[in-house]
Design a protein that fits this description.
The complex is a heterodimer of chains A (367) and B (170).
Chain A: H1 3-6, H2 10-15, E1 24-33, H3 46-61, E2 70-73, H4 79-87, H5 93-96, E3 103-106, E4 112-116, E5 122-129, H6 133-150, E6 155-156, E7 160-161, E8 173-180, H7 182-186, H8 190-199, E9 202-205, E10 218-223, H9 231-259, H10 261-277, H11 283-298, H12 307-316, H13 319-324, H14 332-347
Antiparallel strand pairs in A: 1-5, 1-8, 2-3, 3-4, 4-5, 6-7, 8-10, 9-10
Chain B: E1 13-19, E2 22-28, H1 30-35, H2 46-62, H3 78-84, H4 92-95, H5 97-107, H6 119-143, H7 147-164
Helix pairs in contact in B: 2-3, 2-5, 6-7
The chains are: A alpha+beta (367), B mainly alpha (170).
Amino acid sequence: MSISEFLSTPAEMCRREGANDRIVMSSRIRLARNLRGFPFPGWAKKADRIKSFEVMRPAVESLPMMAGSFSEAMENLSALEKQILVERHLISREHAAKAAGSGLVLNKAESLCVMINEEDHFRMQALCPGLQLRQAWQSIDELDTALERVLPYAFSPELGYLTACPTNLGTGIRVSAMLHLPALVLAEQMNQIIQAVNKLGLAVRGLYGEGTEALGNVFQVSNQMTLGESEVEIVEKLNKVLAQMIEHEENARATLLEKKPKMVFNHIGRAYGILANAHSISSKETMNLLSLARLGFDLGLFPGIQRSLVDELFVITQPAHLQNAHSEKLSAEARDLLRADMLRERLKPVKRPNPPASPPDAPAAET
Amino acid sequence: MLCNLCKKNEATVHLTQIVAEKMQKVDLCEACSKEKGVSDTTGFSLADLLLGLGAGQELEKGSSAGNELKCPQCGFTQADFKKAGRLGCAECYHTFAEGLEGLLKSMHKGVRHTGKVPQALRQSRELTDKVKSLQKKLEKAIAEENFEQAAVCRDEINQLRQTHGNLLPG
């Protein structure tokens, strides 16, 4: 079975729900682990990597929680398939660039994914919709415990789990959440928030992790320090900070609606206008406008549609997903045309945004 | 002021980041800052960049004799670390321990792991502790010529060694 057949459709994927998914798009926890007795993947010779891959892959496949999983070596995946996995946040961009001796094992629910021979021997992650960090920690902790029973990890009582990069040493954990924060961006408060969050030792990044920009007002918040704190302490710290960020975003939405309703409706109306009528549109512009459409949905400006439609458009207008829906190879220009066609088609049943007549009584109405 | 990365061009991008009350500074030229994605302040993490910069020097401080350290397990050297910002194998943490300590201090909350411990190791640690305390008890019993008590301790130790020998050192 190919990965495209294995993956759920974007529509199915976007119907998954979780707590606070109005603002928190997903929660993720990844652990970095290495085998004892093998050099780290980045330093290992190709032969060594292939050897360690042959030990690790069957071990992961044999775990009860990975029953019925998709398992493949990276060299057997096409560039397009790898890019789709990146757009789904199932593998890192770095992993997509790997070839022989690397691979991935993904469970049926797409909630657990183990990258083999990325920067570390194992990069295992649990992905949950909405704000569910405790749930994500529980699932990945179970997977890790099951795996350590069958494979010897590189572990030191003083330094913890030994990782290729000293920034991951100790717990090897990265706890992160993807947040949609359009009001904080519109209200120009985002830089302040980023600085405050940085001071707590947490990082704020763009949509696709390290060194990427915050397309579509989507930000990733994650821990940076991995040594000297326990996993649960890190998870709870993130939970606390995320709860505050959610509150700030909700406050910013309420304040904007109260103080500058025309500015908000103008942005949302224009976004709808372009998305529903353009004949050529880039992926970047699409994401930024869809973010405003999502805000419009949250503010009740698009009655009769589901948020999952907006989220689905977020996914299927990305380059690799768009290419995947077409048999011939598309140039960037051709993709822009097809993207616009698809958006016009999908937004046909969506009526133009309809803001409340005079100053709204209940600005943050959720329905 | 020259760029910290290429050490050729004039630095025009100056970054300061305060993470958990630790201040880190980097000066870069236009080209290097672009390459590192620094122009986008939201998606940028100074720690990742600093690692590539300061790491090599930190490790050099660790080698007092002046001749370059090399990991006996995997052949990895300080120069390799300076280049890659990653280590070669688990043993490298032992080889470069001295130089790494300062680096770890600057990037983490502490320098000792306080999180999860693999189950097998946890069990073996508990067993080792138990055997040790039994051995102490045994010695004390012998010293007090309480041979009945000593025999009980000896049997218990032998029992543990027999059933969990694989988890005990030596």
